[in-house]
């Protein structure tokens, strides 16, 4: 008896919301999950940020494997390149799904507006990341990758040891460009 009531309630709820809206919200949810998973998988470091007590140096992912300094340089270069390519691919896929929602005539105005808002948010994040990367490189770092997620940021810089002044510079740049407070900024050395 309880199972029948539950089935009826679920069926009534589905009719009220509509299949189309379930599909749209499901697609948006999948995009958000895909971006989150990509950020987790490709963050590339198990560091929890910079340890002020000692220099983090290079981790096992960039350790010399017998190829000499050239092998290490190539590993670091490929790391930065792969992060940027993966980040752009994930963002392109997310925007494609959101544009499909906007272009779909069957989508409700609410869903279209939400998709447009998500596209604008992604564009703002991409602009902030590009600005952060450019400004950090302008401060003397060879390479930088910035990844912004909601109200936190991970900044990966090529460095042989950050000093507190450099950390402050990076935190200031990220705050100025994105409004993210230093407590929510993770700086990772490669």
Condensed summary:
The chain is mainly α. Helix content is 63%, strand content 9%. It has one domain (2-189): Orthogonal Bundle (Helix Hairpins), CATH 1.10.287.
Strand and helix layout:
Blueprint: H1 2-17, H2 19-41, H3 68-103, H4 109-138, E1 144-149, E2 152-157, H5 164-178, E3 185-189
Parallel strand pairs: 2-3
Antiparallel strand pairs: 1-2
Helix pairs in contact: 2-3, 3-4, 4-5
Can you put this structure into words, describing what you see?
The chain has 190 residues and is mainly α. It has one domain (2-189): Helix Hairpins (Orthogonal Bundle), CATH 1.10.287.4300. The chain is 63% helix and 9% strand. It has five helices and three strands. The protein has helices at 2-17, 19-41, 68-103, 109-138, 164-178; strands spanning 144-149, 152-157, 185-189. The protein has a three-stranded mixed β-sheet, with helices on both faces. Strand 1 and strand 2 (152-157) form a beta hairpin. The longest helix is centred in the middle third of the chain and has 36 residues, at 68-103. The radius of gyration is 21 Å and the shape is elongated. The N and C termini lie far apart (61 Å). Residues 45-70 have low confidence and may be disordered.
């Amino acid at each position: 008896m309880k199972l029948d009531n539950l089935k009826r309630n679920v069926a009534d709820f589905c009719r009220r919301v509509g299949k189309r809206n379930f599909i749209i919200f499901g697609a948006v949810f999948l995009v958000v999950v895909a971006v989150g998973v990509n950020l987790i998988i490709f963050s590339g470091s198990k560091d929890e940020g910079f340890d002020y007590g000692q220099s983090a140096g290079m981790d096992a992912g960039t350790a010399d494997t017998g190829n000499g300094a050239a092998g290490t340089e190539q590993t670091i270069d490929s790391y930065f390149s792969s992060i940027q390519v993966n980040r752009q691919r994930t963002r392109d896929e997310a925007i494609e799904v959101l544009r499909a929602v906007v272009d779909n005539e069957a989508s409700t105005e609410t869903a279209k507006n939400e998709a447009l808002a998500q596209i604008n948010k992604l564009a703002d994040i991409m602009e902030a990341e590009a600005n952060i990367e450019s400004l950090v490189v302008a401060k003397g770092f060879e390479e930088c990758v910035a990844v912004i997620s909601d109200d936190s940021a991970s900044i990966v810089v090529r460095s042989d040891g950050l000093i507190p002044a450099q950390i402050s510079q990076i935190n200031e740049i990220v705050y100025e460009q994105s409004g993210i407070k230093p407590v929510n900024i993770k700086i990772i050395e490669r």
